[in-house]
Structures are given as structure tokens and as C-alpha cells.
Design goal:
The chain has 173 residues and is mostly helical. It has 3 helices and 2 strands; from the N terminus they run αβαβα. The chain has 2 domains: 103 residues, no CATH class; 64 residues.
């Protein structure tokens, strides 16, 4: 028995709706019927989508007009924790088509926001570490120059003492 392309599309669209509804329930605790799930949530919907840049085109259309390939990509991407994420509407600071820049679009409690925070902190730590290494290197070079100057002075003083001892020995003999 073969399935028609319409049956296949219906199967994947319904599966995609179910998977998205389960994701919303697991992330936000809202039980939304799969047939009420939207890729472009309405203003009154209790969720929004934070989507990786390369997947954003999939969320520009409605589920009812999507393709089997799009549904499969969405289902696959939901398995990765940081590609598609349901978030609270309050997390959005600029709701131009319910999409904002990556920095502003995630709530502080979301996994993606935590990753962003850690990445920024990592960059800050790396920059601080680099500055500290450069300062230590500069301090070591300065100390090396000072020690070399001190060694040179002591070497000259030793030479003077050797000369003084040699002259004294010549006089004593």
C-alpha cells in the first residue's frame, strides 16, 4: 500500500504539531492541543519560538502550508537542545514578527540564554587572561632588564675589586 503525498504531508504536519506541543509542555508547562500550535504564534499565545538562525526560514510560514521536508527538519531540530526553544512571550523585548536578535530573544531562565551568558563570560575571562598574560610578560621583561642592569653593575664592581686586589698584590711583593 502506498501513501499519497497528501497523506505523507498530513502525517508529518501532525507529527510536527505533536512534537512542538510536547516541547512547549516540557519547557513551559503549557498543555496546548497540537492543532493549536503555530510557528508564528499570535499575540495571545503563551509561547514564542527562539530559533537558530539557519532554521528561521522554516518559521516564516504556517504549519498548514509547510512541506514534508520542513516538518522533518523541525522535528529533527527539536532533538537538539539549542536549535529550537519554546520561550515565554515576556522574553521578547522587540516583538517584530515575534523574532528578535539572538541576544534579546531568550529569557534568562532558558538554556540558550544560559549558553549565551556562559559564552560571554568565557570571552570575558579569555580577554582578562590575555591582558594578564601580557602584563605579566611585560613585568617579566622589565624585571629582566633591571636584573641585567644590576648584574652589569655588579660585574663592573667585581672587576674593580679584582683590579684593586691585583694592584695591592703588586705593591706587597
Amino acid at each position: 500500500m502506498t501513501t499519497s503525498s497528501n497523506q505523507k504531508r498530513t502525517f508529518w504536519r501532525n507529527k510536527c504539531r505533536r512534537v512542538l506541543a510536547e516541547h512547549i509542555n516540557s519547557r513551559l508547562g503549557f498543555e496546548i492541543p497540537p492543532d493549536k500550535i503555530r510557528l508564528q504564534p499570535r499575540h495571545e499565545d503563551p509561547y514564542r519560538w527562539h530559533v537558530a538562525d539557519h532554521l528561521k526560514p522554516l518559521f516564516k510560514s504556517n504549519l498548514s502550508s509547510g512541506s514534508v521536508g520542513n516538518f522533518q527538519k523541525i522535528c529533527h531540530a527539536l532533538k537538539a537542545p539549542d536549535l529550537i526553544e519554546a520561550i515565554h512571550p515576556e522574553a521578547l523585548q522587540n516583538d517584530q514578527h515575534f523574532e528578535t536578535e539572538k541576544q534579546n530573544s531568550v529569557p534568562s531562565s532558558s538554556f540558550a540564554a544560559t549558553i549565551q551568558t556562559f559564552e560571554k563570560e568565557k570571552q570575558d575571562v579569555l580577554a582578562d587572561s590575555q591582558r594578564l598574560c601580557e602584563k605579566q610578560e611585560q613585568d617579566l621583561l622589565s624585571a629582566q632588564v633591571e636584573w641585567e642592569a644590576e648584574r652589569q653593575k655588579l660585574q663592573e664592581e667585581i672587576s674593580r675589586w679584582k683590579d684593586a686586589v691585583s694592584s695591592y698584590d703588586l705593591r706587597v711583593q
